[in-house]
Amino acid sequence: QLQASGGGLVQAGDSLRLxxxxxxxVSLPTTMAWFRQAPGKERECVATxxxxxxxxxxxxxxxxxxxxxxxxxxxxxxxxMNSLKPEDTAVYYCAARRYDSSWSAYxxxxxxxxxxxxxxxxx
Length: 123
Description:
0% of the residues lie in helices and 50% in strands. By secondary structure, it is mostly beta strands. β5 (44-50) and β6 form a beta hairpin.
């Protein structure tokens, strides 16, 4: 029900835009998020967006570089990533809360997940 795309191999300082298309029983404006997981590390919340107003949240390490947005008509959430760093290398997952639209940055609170898309940033 979530299809993520847009990952790739880039150099430090480059940009990428990830897309997450929702279908089925997932429809905006529920709360949606982008998580990432680097090898050997726990999955962490990168950004969330919720409500019709599109209220956003960012983890400190990406503030000012990443922007989460959504297109309700297309049922799609985006993550624009600028000034990428090698430490941004990870598998990025989009996730949705189908039944509770309140904000959360916890993996356990998201019940629908995309398949993940690899982002690799070389130095």
